Amino acid sequence: MTSDKAMQREKIAKRAEKEISDDSYVNLGIGMPTLVANFIPENKTVVLQSENGLLGTGPFPTEEEVDPDLINAGKETVTTVKGASYFDNAESFAMIRGQHIDVAILGGMEISENGDLANWMIPGKVVKGMGGAMDIVHGAKRVIVIMDHVNKNEEPKILKACKLPLTGAGVVNRIITDRAVIDITPEGLKLIQVAQGYTLEDIQATTEPDLIMEENVELNAF
């Protein structure tokens, strides 16, 4: 039986997949973003890049397809698509830093109203570092962050200013949560879509900064 949490993660990943246009080169971050690969339709041409040195990542493998030597940057086993290629870490980051990645879809812990992203460190927990995230948020042409709208204490994760150490300042273009789709604009945070089961008032009540709400906000959008 699929848990409510797993269903929520899948809902976010399915919505995020709609942000990927045909013929795009895409980097999927560790965690929930890797689920996006499972929802790319066969009629859409997308090349997934993994910073550990793989171009052409496919969906997660079935039990019969698992190859323990074939992994993504999060050390999860993956599949490859026809024409996939392998290369060293330095070449992978040359692709990222050279702005050859059209879209990066990453997870987030906190996002500020001006697009600052914190997604690598939790105080009190031992971490090895932010990995490739710092390069990705500056090298990708478009950065989309997917995450829960609130934390486990029902507190907003979209804030006026991040409290956690930053991955990058002013780097996020769009936020997709289980409750809404929000764009970072020069005028402020603009509400684009509201998920089924939520109202405009619900979204504002669980978002610290004031939201721009125009008449064309889509309700029950996903």
From TrEMBL:
InterPro entries: 3-oxoacid_CoA-transf_B, CoA_trans_fam_I, CoA_transf_AS, NagB/RpiA_transferase-like. It comes from the Bacteria. The keyword RNA-binding does not apply. One of its GO terms (molecular function) is transferase activity. Keywords: Transferase. Transmembrane segments: none annotated. Belongs to the 3-oxoacid CoA-transferase subunit B family. NCBIfam families: pcaJ_scoB_fam (TIGR02428). This is CoA transferase subunit B. It comes from Lentibacillus halophilus.
